[in-house]
């Protein structure tokens, strides 16, 4: 889970885990208070008007920790009588250092503590000398405090980066270890509909489906073949009763004219899809179906992924599909965190699950061609989203087909296929519900620093936490996406993997959000 983390981050992780084991309550308080205090404290130069007194030392006043010394009563009186308000900051910092030193394995303010202790232990000498030396000691302490605060701000930045990079994973793993009542999937049946035509390489896809399928009763496989290609039929029939073969009865030609003739393959695909989905939902009576093309490799947790997301798809009316595909799923653009899942306004396809209720809605108006572009139109999407993974659970191995093989060479073959099984069915995925997801998503995206494309590419950023690049219009988005290796096209105004206009990806190990302004009002269907 922590591959690619810096050494400093790993040290922090280790310390945080140790502290958590000792006291979860103290650890939570430590993080919350350190974040609040160190963000607010901006130490200015402290100029104190010191009256001649019989003592020349300020003892740090700190919250009781069960350890440490008790301050001298005379020193306490001096501190309480010092000018306000700036000296409160100094006292607060001194106290904070001691307080966190006692609570945490991470040594906050160690240098300033040593210096403060050294000053505290010295005894007064003459009145004039006391005043001069006291002023000098305070000035030295001030410099060291500033240096230490700078160091602690860097440490705070690392902590914040750790939290933003791994909070999703930690929350997911925490959910999986809280011993929730496991949902009952025993009665769930999801049909697997494989579309085949004239490629005998369908064997590669079927072998993997059968290898990773946990139960033939829970995931019955239906292979729907078009084209009437006999060699492909023989391959499918060789699997016997492990699957069911259905063949599209309408092999008639589709009359087209002019420029449409070159798109005949897309017309046949749409006709085949419509017939096979009708068979799946109305003949076999499945409540949900996973659509798989015959040229897809699948991940070991392919079925686990769809099984676990099935209840959310059925219960959240703002969702209309679950997809195994990340359009921006190249190695260089994803975090190696296979448990991460997202909501997406873009329909991904390439291994996806839909319900009978959705098909009942779409079937009467099913298009004659280009069904995937049609389904992405606002009239069909109706502001609904899909669930998609950080790392794809499918990958196409078919270079030759109706679509141009050039797209495969330039993009598809570089998509990363997950190879680490995730027990999704034992993880609480309720964070994907819209009411839970949107608040956290918007807060995360618009709570990180904004940078320019040039700053990101040149590495001119003085921290390693996530950042946001803002695009104001279509041209800026396309230029930025292309420069960073992202898919730069739109379908009905929606960018690939986009949610609320935001595309989330990794760039040189850093999480980046390519986002519209915070006052975003919705997609513009004219963007293409």
TrEMBL record:
<dbReference type="InterPro" id="IPR052261">
    <property type="entry name" value="Glycosyltransferase_13"/>
</dbReference>
<keyword id="KW-0812">Transmembrane</keyword>
<dbReference type="InterPro" id="IPR029044">
    <property type="entry name" value="Nucleotide-diphossugar_trans"/>
</dbReference>
<comment type="function">
    <text>Initiates complex N-linked carbohydrate formation. Essential for the conversion of high-mannose to hybrid and complex N-glycans.</text>
</comment>
<dbReference type="GO" id="GO:0030145">
    <property type="term" value="F:manganese ion binding"/>
</dbReference>
<dbReference type="InterPro" id="IPR004139">
    <property type="entry name" value="Glyco_trans_13"/>
</dbReference>
<keyword id="KW-0464">Manganese</keyword>
<keyword id="KW-0479">Metal-binding</keyword>
<keyword id="KW-1133">Transmembrane helix</keyword>
<keyword id="KW-0808">Transferase</keyword>
<keyword id="KW-0333">Golgi apparatus</keyword>
<keyword id="KW-1015">Disulfide bond</keyword>
<dbReference type="GO" id="GO:0000139">
    <property type="term" value="C:Golgi membrane"/>
</dbReference>
<comment type="similarity">
    <text>Belongs to the glycosyltransferase 13 family.</text>
</comment>
<comment type="pathway">
    <text>Protein modification; protein glycosylation.</text>
</comment>
<protein>
    <recommendedName>
        <fullName>Alpha-1,3-mannosyl-glycoprotein 2-beta-N-acetylglucosaminyltransferase</fullName>
        <ecNumber>2.4.1.101</ecNumber>
    </recommendedName>
</protein>
<dbReference type="GO" id="GO:0003827">
    <property type="term" value="F:alpha-1,3-mannosylglycoprotein 2-beta-N-acetylglucosaminyltransferase activity"/>
</dbReference>
<keyword id="KW-0735">Signal-anchor</keyword>
<dbReference type="GO" id="GO:0006487">
    <property type="term" value="P:protein N-linked glycosylation"/>
</dbReference>
<keyword id="KW-0963">Cytoplasm</keyword>
<dbReference type="GO" id="GO:0048471">
    <property type="term" value="C:perinuclear region of cytoplasm"/>
</dbReference>
<keyword id="KW-0328">Glycosyltransferase</keyword>
<keyword id="KW-0472">Membrane</keyword>
<dbReference type="Pfam" id="PF03071">
    <property type="entry name" value="GNT-I"/>
</dbReference>
């Amino acid at each position: 889970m922590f591959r690619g983390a810096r050494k400093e981050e790993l040290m922090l992780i280790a310390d945080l885990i140790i502290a958590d084991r000792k006291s979860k309550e103290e650890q939570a308080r430590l993080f919350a208070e350190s974040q609040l205090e160190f963000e607010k404290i901006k130490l200015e130069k402290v100029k104190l008007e010191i009256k001649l007194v019989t003592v020349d030392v300020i003892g740090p006043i700190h919250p009781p920790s069960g350890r440490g010394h008790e301050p001298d009563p005379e020193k306490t009186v001096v501190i309480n009588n010092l000018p306000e308000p700036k000296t409160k900051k100094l006292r607060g910092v001194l106290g904070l250092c001691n307080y966190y030193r006692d609570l945490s394995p991470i040594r906050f303010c160690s240098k300033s503590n040593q210096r403060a202790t050294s000053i505290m232990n010295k005894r007064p000498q003459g009145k004039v000398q006391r005043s001069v030396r006291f002023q000098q000691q305070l000035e030295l302490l001030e410099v060291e405090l500033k240096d230490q605060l700078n160091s602690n701000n860097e440490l705070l930045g690392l902590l914040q980066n750790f939290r933003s990079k791994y909070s999703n994973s930690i929350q997911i793993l925490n959910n999986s270890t809280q011993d929730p009542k496991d949902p009952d999937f025993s009665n769930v049946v999801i049909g697997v509909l494989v579309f085949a035509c004239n490629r005998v390489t369908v064997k590669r896809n079927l072998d993997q489906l059968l290898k990773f399928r946990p139960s033939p009763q829970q995931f019955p496989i239906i292979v729907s073949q078009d084209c009437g290609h006999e060699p492909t039929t023989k391959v499918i029939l060789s699997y016997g009763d492990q699957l069911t073969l259905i063949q599209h009865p309408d092999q008639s030609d589709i009359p087209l004219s002019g420029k449409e003739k070159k798109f005949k393959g897309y017309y046949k695909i749409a006709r085949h899809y419509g017939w096979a989905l009708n068979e799946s939902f109305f003949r076999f009576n499945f409540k949900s179906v996973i659509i798989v093309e015959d040229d897809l490799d699948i991940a070991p947790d392919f079925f686990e992924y769809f099984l676990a997301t099935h209840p959310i798809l059925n219960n959240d009316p703002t969702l209309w599909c679950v997809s195994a595909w990340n359009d921006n799923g190249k190695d260089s653009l994803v975090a190696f965190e296979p448990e991460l899942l997202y909501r997406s306004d873009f329909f991904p396809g390439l291994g996806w699950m839909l319900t009978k209720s959705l098909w009942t809605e779409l079937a009467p108006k099913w298009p004659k061609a280009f069904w995937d572009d049609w389904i992405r139109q606002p009239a069909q999407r109706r502001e609904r989203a899909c669930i998609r993974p950080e790392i794809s659970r499918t990958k196409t191995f078919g270079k030759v087909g109706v679509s141009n093989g050039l797209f495969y060479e330039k993009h598809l073959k570089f998509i990363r296929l997950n190879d680490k099984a995730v027990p999704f069915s034992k993880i609480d995925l309720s964070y994907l519900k819209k009411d839970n997801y949107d608040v956290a998503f918007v807060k995360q995206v618009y709570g990180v620093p904004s940078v320019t494309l040039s700053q990101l590419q040149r590495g001119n950023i003085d921290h390693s936490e996530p950042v946001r690049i803002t695009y104001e219009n279509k041209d800026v988005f396309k230029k930025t996406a292309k420069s960073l290796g992202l898919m730069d096209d739109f379908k009905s105004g929606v960018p690939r993997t986009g949610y609320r206009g935001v595309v989330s990806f990794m760039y040189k190990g850093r999480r980046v959000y390519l986002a519209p302004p915070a006052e975003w009002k919705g997609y513009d269907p004219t963007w293409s």
